Each structure stands twice: as C-alpha cells, then as structure tokens.
Amino acid sequence: MPRPHPSSGFAPGLPAPPRLARGTTLPRRSCAAAVPAPLGTRSREALSDAMAPLGELLAGVRGVLLDISGVLYDSGAGGGTAIAGSVEAVARLKRSRLKVRFCTNESQKSRAELVGQLRRLGFDISEGEVTAPAPAACQILKERGLRPHLLIHDGVRSEFDQIDTSNPNCVVIADAGESFSYQNMNSAFQVLMELENPVLISLGKGRYYKETSGLMLDVGPYMKALEYACGIQAEVVGKPSPEFFKSALQAIGVEAHQAVMIGDDIVGDVGGAQRCGMRALQVRTGKFRPSDEHHPEVKADGYVDNLAEAVDLLLQHVDK
Ligand SMILES: [Mg+2]
Fold first, then answer.
1. How far is the CA of 44 from the centre of ligand 1 (A)?
2. Among the listed ranges 49-58, 151-160, 250-259, 277-286, which one has the minimum average pLDDT value?
3. What is the CATH number assigned to the segment(s) 134-237?
4. What are the domain boundaries of the chain?
5. Region entry Disordered: which residue ranges (predicted)?
6. Ligand 1 center–CA 264 separation, angstroms
C-alpha cells in the first residue's frame, strides 16, 4: 500500500539520525536543542508546525484502534492509574467523526472487569467496544471442538464459562500472573506431552508490560517455555496476529489502510498493525523504552509523547 513518507520530523538544528526510512520521530522533550514546551502550553500553530510531516501521514484516516494498557492506563494495585490526558483524549476521539475500537491483549481480566476498572478511572468505554483475546479464543475452541486445560488468571476465568474443559485436548495459556507456578506450568506441560497432536493456544505473546509498580513478565516467556519443552509452536490469539487486528477493524467497518493503531508495544502493536497494512503510532508511555525508537525490525510511522498528543494530531489532520 503506498504511503507518504515525510522527509524528516525533526526540529530545525537537530542532526537527523541515520535511520527512519519509515518512521517519523517528533522532537523529544529530552533533546536540549529541541525541547518544545509541554503540550498544553504550546500554541496550536507551533504544535501544528512541529507535527506537520506526521500529520500528512494521517490524512485519510477513518478509524483508530487503541491499545489499553500503557496507553489509557497503567494497571496495578487499587485499579491502576489513568495516564495523564488519556481520559479526555478518548472522549475527544469519540466525539469526532473517527471510528474508535479498543484492541487489547489483556488476559488477566474479563472484559467486564477491565471495562469496569476503566470506567472508574473516568474513561468512556463499554464492553462492546473492546476486542480482547479471551472471547476470540473461545470462538476458536468452539469451532474446532477443542477442550482446553486452562493456565489462566482467575480474573479471566468467567470468559470461559461456556467452554467444556473436561478431558482436555489442548492448552490455553494467558497472563496468569502469580499462577505461573512450577506446578501449574508442569501440569500444562504434562497435558501437552500426552496429546498426539499437541495444541497450545496463547492469548498474546507479549514479553512484558508495565504496572504502576514496574515492568511485569507477560505471557510470552511462559508460552516460549512450553514451546521449548514440548517442541511445538503456539497459536497466538491476540496482537500481533493479523486475524485479531482484522476482527477489530471489521467491528468498526474500517479498512486497514484507513486505520491507525496507537500502542505502547513496538512489536505487538506497531509491527503487528503495520503488517496488516495499518499505520501505527507508538506512545512514549506504558512499557515504552527509548531503545524502541531504534528497534532493529520495526519503525513506527510516528512516535508521540502520549495519547493526548496522538489525538491532537489526528483531529488536526484527518479531515484534511
Ligand atoms: Mg499496551
């Protein structure tokens, strides 16, 4: 799909880095020569000038997929914390002409619990607006007559209420948190080893995510352990699986080339969305690390400080 490629998103006076055949990097606040005023204090004109190249890239966008953890909020004790500006940014987006869908790999909580938590933080979000891996996995289990051994967090167990788990013929692994004990991992391993054709379904394959207390291991390392022990390859339901992004786009009736993904995971969110033909922005919140902007394989179409900045850009340029 043809995309416009801005020549540079760097502020005047800054040497362009030796990369960015694809991505555009907005001026970073940590760069002394290019320190822009905080978003709220910059004039609309200054903001518009700084972001023009990236703004051009957003022309024609009709729909937005939003990652949740690390973009809307950081999970953690007491329900987590909203990321500054995100509540209002979601509200502005939903008031606009853009179609919005939340696309998450959250697998510790049911959608009902996740949405309840986000609503308590002030977000305008409902269960029907969320694409999450557990319901997608349930559909696959039913379609293929699979009866899973579940290695999951108790918080998401209700999503599997209608699933037959007797005499398991596959394993479903999700972000089980504290339930990733040796005993539970070994039980899943034993189920797989007894199957003639072992099937391992993983809800996402993230390496880590950020909670308010720090970075946390995600399901990916445990999925890899079972793959290694059993000599098999897991089927991933969730980002970066193309089917998962497509189902989120179908839900809002938007084609991939008309959509932009906004996420904090350079591989799962940005790389996955780009492989589907979407544009993708990485936010510098959540699990973002500065090294992500020099990732050897994935370049975002743009990097923004947070969701509020992404929404500013979108709302300035999508109708042009
Ligand atoms: Mg995230």
1. 29
2. 49-58
3. 3.40.50.1000
4. 55-105+240-316, 134-237
5. 1-22
6. 5
CA dist., res. 284 & res. 295, Å (int)? 14
Ligand 1 center to 320 CA (angstroms)? 29
Work out the pLDDT band at 53, boundaries 50, 70, 90: confident
The confidence score (pLDDT) of residue 77 equals 86
Least confident residue range of 22-31, 80-89, 239-248: 22-31
Residue 124 burial class via C-beta count within 10 angstroms: exposed 0-12, middle 13-18, buried 19 and up: middle
Q: How far is the CA of 74 from the centre of ligand 1 (A)?
A: 9
Q: How many helices (H) and strands (E) does the chain have?
A: 9, 14
Using the mean position of ligand 1's atoms as its centre, give its distance from the Cα of residue 284 in Å.
11
Kindly give the distance from the C-alpha atom of residue 169 to the centroid of ligand 1, in angstroms, as a whole number. Answer: 31
Q: How far is the CA of 258 from the centre of ligand 1 (A)?
A: 22
Residue 54: the pLDDT is 75
Same fold, 55-105+240-316 and 134-237: yes
The class level of CATH for 55-105+240-316 reads: alpha beta
Centre of ligand 1 from the C-alpha of residue 22, in Å: 22
